Amino acid sequence: MNKSSPLYILIFIVAISALFGFGVSMVHYSTEDMLARNLTLHRNRTIARAFDLSVEGKSSEAYQQAVATAIRDTVNIINNREWELFYRTDGRDEVGFIFTGMGFWDRITGILVVSSDLQEIRDIKFLSHKETPGLGARIEEKSFTDQFENLPIDWDAPLAEHIIIGPGDTPNTVDAITGATQTSMALMNMLNEELNAFRKAQVK
């Protein structure tokens, strides 16, 4: 067959595509269980960090045990929204929920832990985001997330100012990330909206 003919080129392209497609599929299926285990580990590790749980070891089983011992995970449909909730079962007055919203580049998802009376944020940790490395991605850094520990929520303030990320000297203010103003603003708007929605869902 003439190698420059359209039929040969078509057959060659189909064969190469099938070969590489088969290879990618094999890699995907052979690593599917490992990826699932890694996702579970990441989730349990994030929950454990958000609730400051004591974990005996660094294995997937250790994190699973720590979460299973201290946290009750449930999914409730409230006000036409599915809420994934985390309740402490060891006497601490804390409840957590999955929050999500648009960051500067893409969706940000995390766990927000608040006091049971909804008067303060206890901690915040992130499950996934695609913010700019070295800039917006610094929302995961301890120096930023530590500011949310025991942060009061000002329910008397306007919706956009229940908590403030940026300039200010009020108790409900945390410093924004230098060089990542858009990510900081997006996160502030997202958290205020999510806190407001969660409060409405909990107050009957």
Protein described:
The protein is an alpha+beta fold. It has a domain at 70-202. It is built from 4 helices and 8 strands, in the order ααβββββαβββα. The chain has helices spanning 6-50, 60-70, 142-145, 181-202; strands at 71-78, 81-88, 94-102, 107-115, 120-128, 151-152, 164-165, 173-174. Strands 1-2-3-4-5-6 form a 6-stranded antiparallel β-sheet, with helices on both faces. It has a two-stranded parallel ribbon with strand order 7-8. A hairpin with a 4-residue loop joins strand 4 and strand 5 (120-128). Helix 1 packs across helix 2 (60-70). The mean pLDDT is 88.
What's this, in brief?
The protein has four helices and eight strands; from the N terminus they run ααβββββαβββα. With about 200 residues, it is of the alpha+beta class. It is globular, with a radius of gyration of 22 Å.
With strands numbered from the N-terminus, the spatial order across the biggest sheet is: 1-2-3-4-5-6
- As a whole number of angstroms, the C-alpha radius of gyration is 22 Å
Number of helices: 4
Main sheet, how many strands, which sense, barrel?
6 strands, antiparallel
N→C terminal distance: 76 Å
Secondary-structure element series: HHEEEEEHEEEH
Total number of beta strands: 8
Task: Name the overall outline.
Answer: globular
Class per helix and strand makeup:
alpha+beta
Helix content: 40-55%
Q: Runs with pLDDT <50, length 5+? A: none
Into which percentage range does the β-strand content fall? 15-25%
> On the 0-100 scale, what is the average pLDDT?
88
